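Many introductory courses stop at the sequence. We go one step further.
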Amino acid sequence: SSNRQNKQEPPTVDEIFKQMDKDEDGKLSKKEIKGPLKNAFTKIDTDEDGFLSKEEVEKAPKPKGRRSQ
């Protein structure tokens, strides 16, 4: 549909890791992440190891109804 062009697609898990995984260890520490992921860190970190794995990020609830301006 044409209105999809106006909405920015959220980044894929791979894109998130490419941008944020500074030490390239395949997981994100609290120091590495920014934005909504950081705010929901404890919810997303289901195994409570202090890192977010790709699997945990994939299963994370997506923010709903947020408009970025």
